[in-house]
Amino acid sequence: MMKKFNLWPGLIISIFIALIVLISSAIRLDQVDKSDIVLRNAGITFLIAISCWITNHYILGATWIRGKAQKTGLALVACASVAIVILYPLREMHTENFPMMSLRGLPQDRKLMMMAFRGLMVGGLEYFVSFYLQLVTDSQNSRIENERLKQENLEARLSLLKQQVNPHFLFNSLSTLRTIAADAPTKQYVMQLANVYRYLLGNEQEHLTSLEKELEFARSYIYILQERFERALCVAIELPETSLSHRIPPFCLQILVENAVKHNIVSVEAPLSIRIYIESEMLCVENNVLPRMSVEESTGKGLNNIKERYQLLSNQEIEIISTSACFIVKLPLLK
Q: Which residue ranges does the record assign to the Signal transduction histidine kinase internal region domain (predicted)?
């Protein structure tokens, strides 16, 4: 990715170099009728300088060139080449009074060396100016980015501390409610709800969890849903014991089950069926498609959350298969 091009420093430096050439040439000039040669020499120098600035800026910002030494070497060679391209058509220009342009009568190799030397002088100076300006800019951007990250980290920590208060209070209240509940179904429901919150609180900072723990959490969450929908929600879990030691990002199963309920009709007349199974080292969550007639627009946050976590943690992609009959999400099992 190329950095934003800034031409103004290059124009200023190029004008400065051209003025130096103009003044030094004018001092040597003792005949007024040769003033056009002085101006032409300064103009050519300006053209070389601005061309070298553009070339240096491109090379410094090129991500395909690795290493500072490679960039420096390539920049100097490129500037020498730029000078040759500009000066070679003017190699016979009559400028006896100006040694840097006195190329008439010189052997071909000497002419090329003189041209390249001029490009190296101008381009080298501009390269190190460009390099210094880039260091200053990168340093400023780095300080700004560090301050932004510190602020975001502070805000995130404060937000996390605030969010912990209510869940812990609710979890403690559920534990008390389970103790004082009179009938078994209520105790069971409260216990499963407490399990859900226990898992949420215990794994909010974890990047990966075992499939066994995730499945226990999913069973508690599914129990709560089935108490609500009863026979309208059918969930089949077909996971072999050998797969339970694998790991996945936490809350993935809960998000996929929640999405299935959110985007489909759940009724006794048209039950929603969810199947959780293993296929080709992938954890699969499949549901039949019973689209709601009226449903809030999907933001895709749940699936995007899972996608991004897999990319960050394992650089692997999840698979999504959507047909008119079924919707399947396949999650890679991590070691």
A: 156-232
